[in-house]
Amino acid sequence: MVGSTHIKVCGLTKVEDGLLALELGADYLGVIRYDGSARMATEAQARLLSNSFPVGKRVCVDVAPSIKELEHHGDLGFDHFQIHFKLDVPLETIAAWSEIVGKENLWLAPHFPPDQDFPKALLPYADTFVIDTYKKGQVGGTGETGDWTGFANLMASYPDTRFILAGGLSPDNIREAVRQSGARVVDVNSGVEASPGIKDHDKLRGFFAALG
């Protein structure tokens, strides 16, 4: 945490990048296991990263995994499970994800356009929701900034739910993003990269410094 802002650094594939993030004050470290991502960690990488990071800080990120896949992510040692999905996923599937990992450990990242109401039917299944920038045909990882004022309104509408702001955050815009959105938890990925899956240490330091 830096100031009053909790920080997740996502898209990690190298242990040294995660350790620097921890040193700078990261609260969570994200490892992507979705094979459609340029930042996907192999199973061997994911296991190494999970074993190298502190308990409670390890987040596995995937897109609409099967029950078997989600159970396997747990076997790799992760603590929290961030799942991106389109709203055509049945509630029965989401309820199963919640039962497997626990409501407190499930971070749901629903894919819905900004002109559509937040899908409040999901609230019983997770304590945490990741709000990423909507882009048609893409589920998360857009690298584009979203509706920060809309995020603030969402937090005000559901004060008992934890929301994480994601999408296009960088050292250059993070202060303004937090100011406009009121976000207490932010998720950074491509904005601190040298290349997909590899962090730029100067950008990473700059991101944390901007929140200091």
Automatic annotation (TrEMBL):
> Which reaction does this enzyme catalyse, per its entry?
N-(5-phospho-beta-D-ribosyl)anthranilate = 1-(2-carboxyphenylamino)-1-deoxy-D-ribulose 5-phosphate
The N-(5'phosphoribosyl) anthranilate isomerase (PRAI) domain is annotated at: 8-208
Q: Name one GO molecular function term.
A: phosphoribosylanthranilate isomerase activity
User: What enzyme category does the UniProt record give?
Assistant: isomerase
* UniProt feature coiled coil, ranges: none
- Please provide the record's keywords in A-Z order: Amino-acid biosynthesis, Aromatic amino acid biosynthesis, Isomerase, Tryptophan biosynthesis
A Pfam family cross-referenced in the UniProt record is PRAI
Pathway of this protein? Amino-acid biosynthesis; L-tryptophan biosynthesis; L-tryptophan from chorismate: step 3/5
Q: Which EC numbers does the record give? A: 5.3.1.24
Give the record's family classification: Belongs to the TrpF family.
Record's protein name: N-(5'-phosphoribosyl)anthranilate isomerase
User: What is the source species?
Assistant: Rubellicoccus peritrichatus
Q: What lineage is on file? A: Bacteria, Pseudomonadati, Verrucomicrobiota, Opitutia, Puniceicoccales
* Underlying gene: trpF
